[in-house]
Amino acid sequence: MNYTSWWARVAASVVDRFPPLFVVIFCGLVERSQRVTKCLVDQADYSLGPYCATGNSVSGVLIWLAGIVVAVLFTVWNHGYLQGTTGSSLGKRLLRFRVIDENTGEPVGFGRSVVRQVAHLADAIPVFAGYLFPLWDDKRQTLADKIMSTVCVSTR
What we know:
Elements: H1 6-33, E1 36-41, E2 50-55, H2 58-86, H3 90-94, E3 97-101, H4 110-124, H5 143-148, E4 150-154
Helix pairs in contact: 1-2, 2-4
C-alpha cells in the first residue's frame, strides 16, 4: 500500500485545525471588544482618584461560548462524520489521503473515527512521541493508529 507521509499528515492536521481555531480566536476578540469598564469616584478627603474595574459583558461571553460550540460541532462533523464515512477529513481530502481500517480497507465509521481522535491523546503522553511514529514505522502509523488498527493511505 501507498502509506501517507508524515509531512502530509502534519499538513492535513494544520488544515483541519484552522477553521475551529479561527472561530474561537475571532469570537474571543469580539468578546474582548465587548468588555465593560465601570469607575467609582472617591469623594473622601484623601482621594486617590477614580477606582475602575473592567469585566466581561454577558453578550461578549455568549458570543465566545457560541464560538466554542461551533468549533466543537465542526470538529465532530469533520473528524467524526466526514472522516468516518468517507475516510477523509477536509485536510486529508485536500492532501489526498484517507484513514481506513487496516484489515478491511474501508472507512472506519463515525464512532470509531471519533474514538481514534480521542486515542491521539496517547500520542501526546510520551512527550508527543506517538505523533513521530510514522517517521520510522513500516506502515507509518501513529500510536493511535496502532491502537485503532487504522492506516493512512494515499488516494492518488
